[in-house]
Automatic annotation (TrEMBL):
SMART domains: LMWPc
Pfam family, one: LMWPc
Boundaries of every Phosphotyrosine protein phosphatase I domain copy: 2-149
UniProt keyword terms in alphabetical order: Hydrolase, Protein phosphatase
Protein name: protein-tyrosine-phosphatase
Family assignment from sequence similarity: Belongs to the low molecular weight phosphotyrosine protein phosphatase family.
Keyword Repeat included in the entry's annotation: no
Catalytic activity: O-phospho-L-tyrosyl-[protein] + H2O = L-tyrosyl-[protein] + phosphate
GO molecular function: protein tyrosine phosphatase activity
C-alpha cells in the first residue's frame, strides 16, 4: 500500500481539499486499492472539525465527497507510517522536518514542487486570503503531477 498524507497548518482548508481531490482522482483511475490517503494539520486547533465552509462549498460544486472527514493534528508516527508527506507550503515543510528530526522517514515535500512549469511554490492559505478557487486550481495541477510521479515510482 502507498501511504499518502497531505499536510497544511489547520487541516480544515487546503489539506482536506487535497485529500478529497486526490482520493477522487485515484478512484477515477481505478487505483484505490493501492492507496491509503489522509490529511493532517501542523496545529490541532480544529481537531474533530469538518472541512472549512469554503472547502466544502468548492468540493460540493465539483461533486467531490468529503464525507466523514475531520481535522486532526499530525502525530509522530505519521512520519514513519506515510510514504509521501505532501505539504502545502514551506512553513509546513519546516515544521514537518523538525518533527521528523534525523530519524527514519520517507518523502517530505511540497505539493507545488511537482509542478515545474509554474513559479508558485506555496499554496496560499485561504483561511486568510478567502480565495478557495485559486487553491483548488493549484491543488488540481499539483495532485495531477504528483500522481503521475507516484505511479511511475511505484510501477502502477
Ligand atoms: P489550512 O488553513 O492550513 O489551509 O487548514 C488554516 C486553518 C486554520 C488556521 C490557520 C490556517 N488557524 O490558525 O486556525
Amino acid at each position: 500500500m502507498i501511504h499518502v498524507l497531505f499536510v497544511c497548518l489547520g487541516n480544515i482548508c487546503r489539506s482536506p481539499m487535497a485529500e478529497a481531490m486526490f482520493r477522487k482522482k485515484v478512484e477515477d483511475e481505478g487505483l484505490s486499492e493501492h492507496f491509503v490517503i489522509d490529511s493532517a494539520g501542523i496545529g490541532g486547533w480544529h481537531q474533530g472539525s469538518p472541512p472549512h465552509e469554503g472547502t466544502r462549498k468548492l468540493l460540493d460544486e465539483k461533486g467531490i465527497s468529503y464525507e466523514g472527514m475531520s481535522a486532526r493534528q499530525i502525530m509522530d508516527e505519521d512520519i514513519t507510517t506515510y510514504d509521501y508527506i505532501i505539504a502545502m507550503d514551506a512553513e509546513n515543510v519546516g515544521a514537518l522536518r523538525s518533527i521528523a528530526g534525523y530519524g527514519k522517514h520517507h518523502f517530505i515535500g511540497r505539493l507545488l514542487d511537482f509542478v515545474e512549469d509554474d513559479d508558485r511554490d506555496d499554496v496560499p492559505d485561504p483561511y486568510y486570503t478567502g480565495n478557495f478557487e485559486e487553491v483548488h486550481e493549484l491543488i488540481e495541477t499539483g495532485i495531477d503531477r504528483f500522481l503521475t510521479y507516484v505511479k511511475k515510482e511505484n510501477d502502477l
